[in-house]
Amino acid sequence: MSLSSVLSADAIESAIKDCQAPDSFNHKKFFQLCGLTKKSPQEVKTVFGILDNDGSGYIEEEELKFFLQRFSPGARVLTDKETKAFLSAADDDNDGKIGAEEFQAMVLS
Hints:
By secondary structure, the protein is mainly alpha-helical. Helices cover 53% and strands 6% of the residues.
């Protein structure tokens, strides 16, 4: 399954274009632009499953670096600063990774 089965290709492209410059990624704005904030909790969980590259049930810091590339293969890698800010915004239990519930809470908040 691909992200374009849940989100429109145009919305994904718009969200990727908005954060092309290094250190310009803002997860809240990105989720709004790509349309994820308007999706159902189940659709958000589906997206989480696609982003969880290794199927561990968590999105770890290494996977977060390539977050934008999961949406669009030609997108840039997140900077270390962006990755750490993104992780700390969602990691409510401070275990160093983002679980499905944490991801859902971050997207839909």
